[in-house]
Amino acid sequence: MKILVCISNVPDTTTKVKFTDNNTKFDTTGVQWVINPWDELALTRALELKDNAATGVKGVTVAHVGPATAEPTIRKALAIGADDAIRINLDPKDAYQVAAQIAEVVKNEQFDVILCGIESSDFNGSTVGSMVAEFLGYPSVSAVSGLNFDNGNAVITREIDGGKESVSVPTPFVAIVQKGIAKEPRIAAMRGIMQARTKVIKVIEPVAVDALTEVTSFEPPQPRAKCVFVDAENPKQLIDLLQNEAKVI
Amino acid sequence: MSVLVFAENWDGKFKKLSFELVSYGAKVAEMLGVSTTVLSIGNVADDELSKLGNYGAQKILSLKNDALNILDSQAYTAAIAEIAQQEGAKVVVIANNNMGKSIAPRLSVKLKAAIGSGVSKLPLSTSPFVVYKRAYSGNAYAHVELKSDVKIITLAQNSFDLIETSNQASIETATVNIDGSLVKTKVNDVQKQSGKLLLTDAEIVVSGGRGMKSPDNWGPIVELADLLGGATACSRPVSDEGWRPHEEHTGQTGKIVAPNLYIAVGISGATQHLAGVSSSKYIVAINTDKDAPIFEAAQYGIVGDASKVLPKLVEAVKEAKAK
Question: What CATH number did the domain enclosing A169 receive?
């Protein structure tokens, strides 16, 4: 059984977000790039499954759609423990393009399970995983917070409103994972970092697929009014403000 | 031509989110000069269906098909795609929730329709068709042009006000050409707490952080939430420590919420926490550290120890309620 984990290369979550070119481009000056947090959890779970021989998981590959500048992030995924990596050499314009490229890779390489994080922390789209599945005609399960294998059959926990469900789908499938899939992201050890240097990042040229969307500009969030402080001894005043000024209670 | 809204139901009932979607869809239809059709899947009684007309639905389609008894993303996608084609839908509006996220992107590929996901405003323009969505985890908003003929919008919950109208909507039975062979998902077990207010539905959220010091101190948080008719939440360290269940974790990697009022108690306001709550209409912060970043996001603040402030706040709410 082979697992493909799709990873996105995103600004570190503490980045001060700024834009250039008349608010049309993200300002990358001084930005630290990391594996998208949910993709990192997906990778962690894939490696945990591989560590357990009973699951039948034999290989974990990561895929990324992006230019060569993303290679340090891909290398990090290899250091954490992925066996190899595929980079599709395209600076994508939207999720549709990304998903089309990943689907093409899967058609040629055959994976049993494809894992995607619920969203990327930069575009917050929540779309790539399900799109990949539709391109391939595979089943997909969203809001996945647990994944295991029992005699080669996937046992999936998905979150529903007010609870959770245990579901199964036949392989090959796409699982879109979120909080709970792994406890903490796995951290690269020195040995992993050394090994990652010689692991293979296969570079594939993209297939021609047009984007369906285009970001025309960005804007910063509306600045909030300055905080009004209420005396700790007098919370009644806060209730009064919430009732009569904000009118929310 | 129409705007097609998919309105999910919960055990045969709609909720505020459903009416937000219909209100939004009707407004988009007005902008485009087309009609508003709402699709309901599953067993919903006619008097419940007719409520959708109060928010601008002109035609209500009720679809019942055994292949749609459980959420299978392929079967749902096939069904909605077929209805969208029958109705000549120009725009399909779906909730940006668990169900919507599992269907809308598949629909995008199936219909080759551009998707704007997590949209929180009406389109900024219709020609070109530009939507407004959250980006960089709440640190920015993006204007996104949807360039295909058919478009899909997933709407963020609690981002659009209800618009009541007095429409007499027609209710029609819809059929699609799909069967059980499409369904690959098997549900083995369901664990569900019914009757409890969902965090994502709550208009008031009372949330505790590490400043609460111990899980034993949660009594006043729960009491305050109950008094205000709200839900309880927590920060990531609190759910990581197991003080509260992980379903309560609000923040970038937990639940993204946008209530009318978010009361953050003993939460310093790390970027990752704010990413999940910054769309709240009002934020109240209670924290011992007057320089905590949460006060920059809050409209109202109290500098003080939660263990001393909370009981007084609970009393103040009780008094205000008694009036």
Answer: 3.40.50.620
Helices (runs of H) and strands (runs of E) counted in chain A: 6, 15
Please tell me whether residues B276 and B145 are part of one structural domain: no
Q: How many Å apart are CA B299 and CA B37, to the nearest integer?
A: 39
Structure tokens at A7: 């990873």
Residue A35 is assigned to a structural domain of this protein:
yes
Total number of domains constituting chain A:
1
Point out which residues pair with B72 in neighbouring strands: none
At B123-174, the pLDDT tens digits run 999 999 999 999 999 999 999 999 999 999 999 999 999 999 987 899 999 9
Asked whether residue A108 is assigned to any structural domain, the reply reads: yes
CATH of the domain at B286: 3.40.50.1220
pLDDT tens over chain B, length 323 residues: 999 999 999 999 999 999 999 999 999 999 999 999 999 999 999 999 999 999 999 999 999 999 999 999 999 999 999 999 999 999 999 999 999 999 999 999 999 999 999 999 999 999 999 999 999 999 999 999 999 999 999 999 999 999 999 878 999 999 999 989 999 999 999 998 877 899 999 999 999 999 999 999 999 999 999 999 999 999 999 999 999 998 999 999 899 999 999 999 999 999 999 999 999 999 999 999 999 999 999 999 999 999 999 999 999 999 998 87
Contacts of B296 in chain A (CB under 8 A): 224, 227
Q: Is residue B187 part of a domain?
A: no
Q: What is the largest CA-CA distance in chain A?
A: 68
Q: Which of residues 189-218 of B touch A (CB under 8 A)?
A: 189-194, 196, 198, 200, 203-204
Of B72, B144, B254, the CB nearest to A213: B144
B155 contact A CB<8A: no
Total residues belonging to chain A = 249
The phi-psi region of residue A112 (left if phi > 0; otherwise alpha if psi is between -120 and 50; otherwise beta) is: alpha
Q: Which residues of A touch B247 (CB under 8 A)?
A: 159
Q: What is the domain extent for residue B126?
A: 2-182
Quote the minimal CA–CA distance from A209 to chain B in Å.
11
Is B192 within the bounds of a domain? no
Q: Helix H segments across chain A?
A: 37-51, 71-80, 95-109, 128-136, 190-196, 235-240
CB atoms within 10 A of CB A178: 23
CB < 8 Å from A in window 129-148 of B = 130, 133-148
